[in-house]
Amino acid sequence: MLTRYRIEIKYMLLIVFFLGSLVALDRLDAFEGLDGVVNDFMDWMTKLGFIGMFIVAVIGNSSLLIQVPYTVPLLSAALNGASLPTMLFLGLGAGIGAGFGEVISYGIADRILAQNPDLSKSRLYRWVNRQVLEHPRMIPVIVFIWGATVIPDDTVIIPLAMVKYGIRRIAPPLFISKIIHNFIVSFLFYEATGFWARRISSEVKTDLALGILIVFILVIFYQIEKTKAVADSLRIPEEQGALD
Predict the structure, then answer these.
(1) I want to staple 82 with a disulfide (CB 3.0 to 4.6 A). Which of 86, 125, 151, 177 is the partner?
(2) How far, in Å, CA of 134 to CA of 34, rounded?
(3) d(CA 147, CA 176)
(4) How many CA atoms lie within 13 A of 150 on its CB side?
(5) What is the pLDDT of residues 25-61, one digit of tens each?
(6) pLDDT below 70 — which residues of the chain?
């Protein structure tokens, strides 16, 4: 049981360790004078503006299997005191960028899967293709739900790329859902940070920003290691079959 979830346990312990260390160092005033640096960083993230959020979202959503938390700049903008109209405008940029990123990831998946001519013989292919043919009106709804929520988009994008669903059909629900998703995230960030801003000091804001950055980095490393572990587990049976 523990072996199965060793990567998850490892990164949970790392998060606890680093956040615990952050609290301990703060108690020792190790971050004295760092407030200005962190505030300058958050200022820079806020000044990325519409174009910056768009670029970050494109990059964050164009990767397959690795979910990059591209909304961190939105959180930085909220922590820095951005107004609600500004947050929604930045959310629009992030939403449009996320839509483009998902379309790019669909294209990448389509190219990769096209290299396997035997894929059409698999049970998964036949099942997905049957759903697309029998429930054509439900597919855009499913894509929208996946895009508007925190469910990993790759779990619907990759199967649809496998059956050649088509970018023109998948793009509209992806763009609409991603824009709505980022509007909601922007509003929640604005409300949450507005509530806590009246109750925390600038020192706590610095700790919070550093904590978010640590978790952001560890989440990316976790997903990279998890993806590699899954790929290795799939490769081992193939190698054993070749030896047999």
Answers:
(1) 86
(2) 59
(3) 8
(4) 4
(5) 666 665 555 555 555 655 666 676 888 889 888 988 8
(6) 1-4, 22-23, 25-46, 48, 65-68, 195-213, 216, 219-220, 222-224, 226-244
Predicted confidence at residue 210, as pLDDT, reads: 64
Residue type, 129: N
Cβ contact 11:229 at 8 Å: no
Residue 118's contacts (CB-CB under 8 Å, 6 or more residues apart) are: none
Amino acid identity at 217: I
Task: Check: CB of residue 98 under 8 Å from CB of residue 182.
Answer: yes
Q: For the stretch 39-51, what's the b/e string if a residue is b when 16 or more beta carbons lie within 10 angstroms of its beta carbon?
A: beebeebbebebe
Whether this model's pTM surpasses 0.70: no
pLDDT on residue 181:
94
Rounded CA-CA distance 220/168 in Å is: 30
Predicted pLDDT of residue 88: 93
Give me the residue label for tokens 């036949």: 126
Q: Report whether 173 contacts 147 (CB < 8 A).
A: yes
Q: Going by C-beta distance under 8 Å and a sequence separation of 6 or more, which residues neighbour residue 95?
A: 57, 175, 178, 179, 180, 181, 182, 183
Distance from the first to the final alpha carbon of the chain: 29
Token pair for 111: 């190219």
Count, residues in the chain: 244
Q: Which DSSP string do the residues of 194-212 spell out, in sequence order?
A: HHHHTTS-HHHHHHHHHHH
